[in-house]
Write a structure and sequence with these properties.
Blueprint lengths: L3 H6 L2 H10 L23 E6 L6 H10 L3 E4 L6 H11 L4 E2 L12 E5 L6 H14 L8 E7 L7 H21 L5 E7 L8 H8 L10 E4 L18 E5 L4 H12 L3 E6 L4 H9 L4 E4 L7 H13 L2 E6 L14 H24 L2 E10 L3 H4 L5 H23 L3 E7 L5 H4 L3 H9 L9 H12 L10 E4 L8
Helix pairs in contact: 3-4, 8-16, 10-11, 11-13
The structure holds nicotinamide-adenine-dinucleotide.
Length: about 475
């Protein structure tokens, strides 16, 4: 599915036409075409600041340096002491931010360590750092604020400032989306410090091209050893439901790109398409209705003898049957509830007994429809909101097993599902976000692969919106 207006607006005629009429030109987003790289920011620079009581400088500098990025600071920035101390300890050099005239490359990302903010005065340090720098952000640049999670704040003021960061990031994301840049917030719970590497890699790289204005929390992950994101899915066995086409096929493809053995499942009516998709990935096709009463047993029977067990389960299969509630038939209600939510609960219940490895990870596909609601979607939105609650409720159990469960909530994504929408709501749907365009199935797949990785330990029970900061429910 393609966005013809985006292509048109980037043609030479389209550029003139759009500027004459004052129409927006959606930015071209850069997406990865290769597996997670170790040095994925090689040749790029990250400009780092923080408040003068920040406590996360060490893990931040370690992770950003580990991605191959050059580390830059603003020499006159008041929040430098913790950064300088950490850099000296880690034997890392911090370069000064070059002037615009120097011809040096601009900094790809601005990262601010807000973990020590505890007063109105201290929050001024964030303003002083970001305000002069933000206009120099290149296209597809990144802003990331890293703060203490509100639950881990040790005072009223610290919690207030921590929440203030959410508003800051949401608003800045709306300002910088025009050039394809994103702003996000990474919240760190006490004990989550050792889990910063994977989410930093995600948020600072092309893998999060369509994620903006979002908050993600990382907490402790007892009983699991921290491993690096690149290569972490190599040899893992992953089940993806609804894998014949659309988002599911893309999830299967990105997991396979990362080295996973994929088992793609879809409705028996889609066996042909499923076979083709799986053949291109060396995957295994399983033609099975997710609502079959014995679905979990049949999955376990397919996977067990050949692969031992599942490391990853992605619940992607889903349908819409839209009608205003007053006109909705019980068949439409039951069908959507059963496929989008009932099947997830039943399959997981079975796989948790047999089929999923002890430390297995589950990712469920929700929707921003479940967050904002939508006229004509009482059935669909109930299921997608239910998925968010389910991931939250199941998180403690999954943590005990050494695994995790999370949800991804897509916004408007260019698939057959959205291509089937009438033209006017489709055009509105794809533009009402900070990046003025619909996402690609790959955007969802990148987020799923990140959350499916054991490197994302400590991220559990969360819902990550991949929606270009859609204004819906924001
Ligand atoms: N496309 C979007 O903009 C968007 C937005 C938000 C959420 N989502 C969610 O993302 C997921 C994938 O959406 P998509 O756009 O790729 O949809 P799609 O219709 O293109 O693909 C859905 C797949 O699920 C399969 N499926 C349906 N019922 C099944 C069943 N009973 N058993 C097994 N497989 C079944 C279909 O055959 C199909 O291959 C869905 O859960 C959807 O709700 C999509």
């Amino acid at each position: 599915m393609s966005d013809r207006y985006l292509d048109f607006a980037h043609s030479s005629f389209g550029k003139t036409f759009a500027s004459m009429l004052g129409l927006p030109t959606p930015p071209r987003l850069r997406r990865p075409d290769a597996p997670w790289a170790g040095q994925l920011l090689e040749g790029k620079f990250v400009l780092i600041g923080g408040d003068d009581a920040a406590v996360l400088s060490e893990p931040l500098l370690t992770a950003i340096h580990g991605m191959g990025a050059g580390l830059r600071i603003v020499p006159e920035h008041v929040g430098l002491p913790p950064l300088k101390k950490a850099a000296a300890k880690l034997k890392l050099s911090l370069a000064g931010n070059p002037s615009a005239e120097s011809g040096e490359p601009r900094s790809h990302a601005l990262v601010f360590d807000a973990s020590g903010l505890n007063s109105i005065e201290s929050i001024r340090e964030l303003y002083d750092f970001m305000q002069p720098l933000v206009r120099g952000l290149p296209s597809n640049g990144r802003v990331l604020v890293v703060s203490r999670a509100p639950e881990s704040a040790d005072s009223v003021l610290a919690k207030t400032m921590s929440m203030a960061m959410r508003g800051f990031v949401r608003s800045l994301a709306k300002e910088i989306g025009k050039n394809g840049s994103t702003a996000n917030l990474l919240e760190v719970e006490i004990g989550g410090e050792s889990g910063l590497d994977a989410p930093l890699r995600f948020f600072l790289s092309e893998h999060s091209a369509y994620v903006s204005g979002q908050t993600l929390s990382v907490g402790p992950a007892e009983g699991t050893s921290r491993i690096a994101l690149p290569g972490s899915l190599n040899g893992k066995v992953a089940l993806v439901t609804g894998a014949a086409r659309g988002i599911g096929a893309s999830i299967a493809s990105v997991l396979a790109r990362e080295g996973a053995q994929v088992i793609g499942m879809d409705h028996p009516s889609q066996e042909g398409a499923l076979g083709e998709t799986m053949a291109s990935l060396n995957g295994v096709g399983l033609a099975l209705d997710v609502t079959a009463a014995d679905a979990a047993e049949r999955i376990a029977a397919e996977v067990g003898p050949r692969f031992g067990g599942l490391d990853v389960v992605v619940h992607n299969a889903g349908v819409t049957r839209d009608k205003m509630l007053r006109n909705m038939s019980p068949q439409f209600w039951d069908m959507v509830l059963n496929i989008n939510l009932g099947a997830i609960l039943r399959i997981n219940e079975g796989l948790l007994k047999k089929g999923l490895q002890q430390n297995g990870r589950i990712v469920c596909i929700s929707s921003i429809g479940g967050i904002g609601g939508n006229a004509g979607q009482t059935n669909y939105a109930s299921t997608k909101a239910g998925v968010i609650g389910y991931a939250d409720a199941m998180a403690p159990l999954m943590a005990k097993r050494g695994g995790a469960i999370n949800a991804v909530a897509p916004g408007f994504i260019e698939t057959q599902m959205t291509a089937a929408m009438p033209m006017a709501p489709r055009e509105v749907g794809r533009r009402i976000n900070s990046l003025s365009q619909g996402g690609m199935p790959q955007d969802i797949a990148e987020a799923v692969a990140f959350l499916a990785s054991p490197a994302a330990a400590g991220i559990n029970g969360r819902t990550l919106r991949v929606c270009g900061q859609n204004w819906f429910g924001a």
